[in-house]
Fold:
Amino acid sequence: MAGSVRIDIDGTIATITNDNPDKHNAFDDDMDAQLFEILANMASTVRVIIWRGDGKSFSSGRDVASIGTNVSPLSHHELMRRGHRGIQQLWNIDAPVIVACKGWVMGGSFQRALLCDIRVAAEGTRFRLPETTYGVIPDTGGIAVLHQICGPGVVSDMVLTGRVMTAAEALDLGIVSRVVAEDDLDDTVREMARQIAAAPAVTIKLARTVIRHLSQPQVRASMDDEMIYQTFLNRSDDFAEFRAARTENRSPDYTGS
Structure:
């Protein structure tokens, strides 16, 4: 059964739910399209958005099994532009977004969570950027946000090694603002949403704008770089060798080109 992304609105609070629990809410192209449509049509009456996942995880990132199964008339560059434009709609919505992190928060889904306003983690949550292990680089703005939060050392460690980060470490570094028991996660983010929704709307809107102005230009510039470099990687000799070596079950011989 294919996954989906659904939205539920309760008064002034909207809840976006990743619904592909059998695959830890991994995203494919159809789920991307559903998410981008939800963001494009967010009701103006919504004051706060909660973004969560069904099942054990928020999202394990990209559904690797779906890569290459859909033939698109768009070039790799245009596909990336569509993805960037789709997720950058988060910045055009007046309502702040609280992400309820649990289980696996990986890859592009981790990066998307980093583009949101607030992240709360359940105990046991694991964060990871595994892109280099697949021969590519993170390309959804997460590197820029992580750099702003915790500096180049942590970013280099996570991106270059693909290691797992725990919820406790994410809290210490400021990547998440709270860590709670898993059973309390939904109630915690719901209460936070109620507190924000109860404040004057214009106050929240302008405070969020001030915060965004501190970071957004650098994140946009980083995403522009990611689009160029990821397009190059897709056509590089090393990436072709990476794919061939995996298919032939042998060690790769990289040349750096």
Remarks:
- The domain at 4-203 is CATH 3.90.226.10 (2-enoyl-CoA Hydratase; Chain A, domain 1).
